[in-house]
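Bug #77: duplicate submission created two jobs. Keeping one. Sequence:
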Amino acid sequence: MLAKFSLDDRAFGAVQSDHACRPLMIRTSHTMSPSSNSLAAFLLLILASACSSVGPESVGLDSLDATYYLDNREFNTLNLQIATKLPGNLSIWGFTDFHGNQGVGHGFGNLRRSFSEYRLSHGGLGAALGVKGLGMQAEYNLLTPSDQDLGRFGLTYRHDLPLPGTGRTGWLQWRAFPIETDGNGGQASLIYSLPLTESMSIGGFADFNLIEDAPHRWILEPQLNLKVADGFWAVLEYRYNGFEGAGGLDGSGWAAGVKASF
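Kept job's structure:
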């Protein structure tokens, strides 16, 4: 989900014009570099090649979600999330968050900045090595209006997790990113999805960010999902962002919202 830092423009030494609700994979010391631009170009090349080599029937949209959150730290977030399948055992999952700043209120017009995170995954490594669930992943992140970006590359491992007493099975995905385009650390991450009943589930992530020139920091975000109708969910999540707390902001809070799935 998932190194991350404050979304507030004050963390960049700029005048606040615009939640740190969604984790960030960028550090305040990072500036746009040739390596990060190269990774972005590489990802675009992969996608263009994959989509142009086959017909549209080989590309499938798995999900499209929109969620609107109100955070108890007096800001709001609009989250747009997409998952799609591509040819060649490739898939994309990603989101864009449009945020307000802490303390400015919940008005829809306060969404003046954004964070985007998109992951290109390849599932063929496990088949090649005989390890079910093993894959590779490249991740690209962009923060506006500061236009900071960062790329990561590493391995993922996903496996089922039976839930005793429920008759249901969830899953865990472990991610390790030893390569970053800023050359200043790495990340270990756990993503989970736990269906408790037909209409209730828990999901989220825990990211541990390794930083060479600063203290290592956690980002945590467990989320409770309650189905209220077909395609509509009520959500409640706890948010902890170690980078925000270190930057003088309130690094933890609660957010409630409504999600629509298409």
